[in-house]
Amino acid sequence: MNQQHLKVTGHFYKYQVWYFQILGIWKLPDGATGQQRRWHQLRFCSIFAILSGMLLLFAMELAGSIAHLREILKVFYMFATEISCMTKLMHMKLKSRKLAGLVTMMKSSSFSTKSEQEEKLMEAGRVSVVNLRNLYGISCLVTATLILLVPFFAGNSELPLTMYELCSIEGRMCYWVLFLTHAVSLMSTCCLNIAFESVAYSVLTYLRVQVQMFALRLQQLGPAETPQDNQRIARELRECSAHYNRIVQLKDLVEVFIKVPGSVQLMCSILVLVSNLFDMSTISIANGEAIYMTKTCIYQLVMLWQIFIICYASNEVTIHSSRLCHSIYKSQWTSWNKENRQMIVLMMQRLDSPLSLRTINPTFTFSLEAFGSIVNCSYSYFALLKRVNS
């Protein structure tokens, strides 16, 4: 059973953690050699240098285009995306030990399934995260490919990303060197986003599955027809109480994983959405900008999806944890003795507060309400910018 649990659980994070190790931001095993640690540090320095270089070139281009609103916004949507990527990179590097503990806790036998119904819940969660990872990864890679290919339709007169050009792109050698730099930088950060968002959805889904399994165990406590049944129920209630504490600890580790990067992602998403909305409002298909419009629309949809999957998965955790008290009520408690009934009253008081994943602002949580607020706020800023600019 434990081997099966390890196999199923591995699908929730296996490939993403492998990519994080390639980037040098995931903790190496304790038995890693000195050479492995040096290569690990070198890979981190390489991706850090790429992101730092992109941010510097974007900042220089912003400073040079300060008088042109549309040019600023064309730079700003990628600049905000890179800020989000840099936050994810540094957060995971600094919290690598705690995040490695998250995977260790997920693999613990304490979270393994104990019945056929629980196995079905775990399998449904596994299928969900695998499908999301594949679909989200493909859509992001298609978007990045479009960003790289659009310049070819423009006759190689511009580069994929709007950033400061270190040399004149009229020269063939300079153009291809800069194009290759843009391609490497864009694809590496795109893969970082894919890995982070998909593993965030995975661990949130795993947490939601554990809450569902816990609710199922509460419902199946059954009636007490004999003193032995009351003893069994008392023992299982104590086990459930201890297991809920483990679920809360898992939630805290998941929150460590998404709290800072997710919060920065939400803030940067507003900037990206506003920039893209304004850019789309100025594009004219009649002037031959249909390909550019397509690229911008797809990027906008991917950005919305990027924040939606975290908010949705977190919202599901909150919803299912809010139903735990009802699960206890369905456990045929009326036939239990007085001590067991008093115990479930205490448990219901504990379970009365649903699990929620908080942002940097403790009063603001990752939820569908937060997603709606981001979209509404972005459109409001866009409408204000459009009015002022007109």
Key features of this structure:
390 residues; mainly alpha
How would you describe the overall organization of this protein?
By secondary structure, this protein is mainly alpha-helical. The chain is built from twelve helices and no strands. It has helices spanning 2-10, 14-23, 34-64, 69-94, 96-106, 116-153, 172-219, 227-282, 290-321, 324-329, 338-351, 368-389. Helix 5 (96-106) packs across helix 8. The longest helix is centred in the middle third of the chain and has 56 residues, at 227-282. The N and C termini lie far apart (65 Å).
Summarize the topology.
Elements: H1 2-10, H2 14-23, H3 34-64, H4 69-94, H5 96-106, H6 116-153, H7 172-219, H8 227-282, H9 290-321, H10 324-329, H11 338-351, H12 368-389
Helix pairs in contact: 2-7, 3-4, 4-7, 4-8, 5-8, 6-7, 6-9, 7-8, 7-9, 8-9, 8-11, 8-12, 9-12
pLDDT averaged over residues:
85
Helix-strand string: HHHHHHHHHHHH
Largest sheet descriptor: none
Helix percentage range? over 70%
Our estimate of the beta-strand percent is under 5%
Count of runs of 4 or more consecutive helical residues = 12
Give the tally of β-strands: 0
SS-based class:
mainly alpha
Query: How many angstroms does the end-to-end distance come to?
Result: 65 Å
Low-confidence stretches: none
Which outline best applies? Answer: elongated
- Rg (C-alpha, Å): 25 Å
How is this structure best summarized?
The protein has 390 residues and is mainly α. It is built from 12 helices and no strands.
